[in-house]
Design goal:
This protein is of the alpha/beta class. The chain is 33% helix and 25% strand. The strands form two sheets. It has a 13-stranded mixed sheet, with helices on both faces. α1 runs parallel beside α6.
Length: 327
């Protein structure tokens, strides 16, 4: 399976969901303007998750990057990972995937529900902790697609609903053709659960001597989590778009052997500064909060990533303690 995500924390939390089912996963950090990825060199038994870093792009640019990757990969199965609150270019990305596929899918299943983080889907509208978010429904957003390909936007309140959705569409695949999956890590977890674990778990990273938390997310949940960190935790609070980001963060992140990164743009900025090209996902600290080994020009480093709005008040603390754990 190929997974395409528009930001790094989304790519990583989807990979963590697959890894929890025993799948070997690698996240590839794609850089716009560098051309298509060399998919021929990738292991077909490994799920590849590509971070296009396209959420802040213009829709036309996000579309071009996505189409190019899909066209190059010739993947037998494709998941377009979208934000569980519908941020980003949802319609443009799905249209781009369709444009790049060798053959049109038999159906498109769209379900961004992520129940373990309070995201559900009812009548095409995302709810967070039971409250509907503003904006158009998925039915309205994707109405034009349904003119040519059946688009299924099923309700999902919990993981049992997601499992049923995946089972139904997977059964249909055998008779009428493949499904284009569109959803968040909640859907990824159920897709990964279809097949039994085949890989031994990756070894845990060695305990880190210097863990640095880098938080650029402005989400209230992240602010709460920062207040609960153990005293003395080394923390950098800075918007990655700031001109000062590189100067302030450079020394600390290069000296660290463990990183906790919250916010997709923040995680991408830090890993780009470290010249990281791939993340080998080992598992999850907790659902939606994966750990990985980052591979770059200067070696490897243990990394935990988290979307800004994910987790309870102690999630960042648990992530730091995971990396620091004693021998």
């Amino acid at each position: 399976m190929l997974v395409i995500a528009d930001d790094l924390t989304g790519a990583a939390d989807s990979a963590g969901a697959f890894a929890s089912g025993g799948h070997r996963c690698v996240v590839v950090l794609h850089h716009a303007g560098t051309g298509a990825l060399a998919f021929a060199d990738l292991d077909p038994d490994v799920i590849t998750i590509v971070d296009t870093d396209s959420r802040a792009m213009r829709p036309v640019d996000a579309c071009r990057v996505t189409t190019e990757i899909v066209r190059c990969a010739h993947a037998p199965e494709l998941l377009i990972k979208i934000d569980s609150t519908l941020r980003g270019h949802v319609l443009a990305t799905v249209e781009a995937a369709l444009a790049g596929m060798d053959e049109p899918p038999a159906r498109i299943v769209v379900c961004p529900a992520f129940p373990s983080h309070g995201r559900s889907l009812v009548a095409g509208r995302v709810h967070i902790d039971g409250s509907a978010i503003d904006g158009v429904t998925l039915h309205e957003l994707l109405a034009d697609l349904a003119d040519s390909i059946p688009v299924m936007i099923p309700d999902a309140l919990d993981d049992h609903d997601l499992a049923r959705i995946v089972a139904t569409a997977t059964t249909s695949n055998k008779t009428s053709g493949p499904t284009l999956w569109v959803g968040s890590a909640g859907l990824a977890r159920q897709l990964g659960a279809r097949t039994p674990a085949v890989w031994p778990a990756l070894p845990l990273p060695a305990p880190a001597r210097r863990v640095v938390v880098v938080a650029g997310s402005q989400h209230d949940r992240t602010a709460e989590q920062l207040t609960q960190l153990d005293p003395g935790t080394e923390t950098i609070l800075l918007d990655p778009r700031s001109a000062a980001f590189r100067d302030v963060a450079h020394e600390a992140i290069h000296a660290a052997d463990g990183l906790v990164l919250t916010g997709g743009a923040t995680a991408r900025a830090v890993l780009d500064a470290l010249h990281v090209d791939t993340l080998h996902i080992g598992g999850e600290v907790e659902p939606g909060v994966p750990w990985s080994t980052a591979v770059g020009r200067h070696g490897t480093i243990a990394v935990v990533t988290k979307a800004g709005g994910f987790g309870d008040t102690l999630t960042l603390q648990r992530a730091v303690r995971f990396l620091r754990r004693p021998e």
